[in-house]
Amino acid sequence: MHFIEVKMASTEQNSDVASTILAALENYSSLQLWTDCLPILETDHTLLKSLLKRGKTIYGATTLPGHRDHISFDPTKTSNVSLELIENHCIGLSPFINDYAVRCIGYTKATCLARGSTGIAPSTYSHLCQTVTNVHFKPEVPLHNSYSSGDVIPGAHWAKSLLEFGGFISQMQLGPKDGMSLINGNFVHVGYALSTLKPLSKAIN
Hints:
This protein is mostly helical. The protein is built from 11 helices and no strands. The radius of gyration is 18 Å and the shape is globular.
């Protein structure tokens, strides 16, 4: 019984988050959560830098990803590695995900990252939040391209457009886990699913 109650509470909480995101993106508004989480992200990022300074091995920050995680690299060059990680996953062509769904994907990513524990640089996260609420941000994200690692292919296309928007990547240096933080997760599928709720509701009602 306790398990069922917990699952129901979790479903209701997720429903509230979905409703909040859908309401905000209609007017390209930001979520209060995105601001409230900044101290947490700052703490996480500071801890990450401290661990790197002590010579700790951290997946994606001092090692290559996937089956090449046994290969280490100089953490002072992580900005280049993050960019290479994103570039190397930018495969696939049209058709692209529609603009509304892409906006849902961006809002979902910002909300997921707000939970912390990714090590993303606060400056990169702030740029993300500002960008997904910008009416002119319309990245081309392939609809049908992916592989066994989930959202990293469409996520990389989205992340590349994000970093290029407003010249961010030419002005700022990426944090040691930014590349990994931006493309990992299930945010593309969740965001795309979120984009179907409004038309489904209209169809049902």
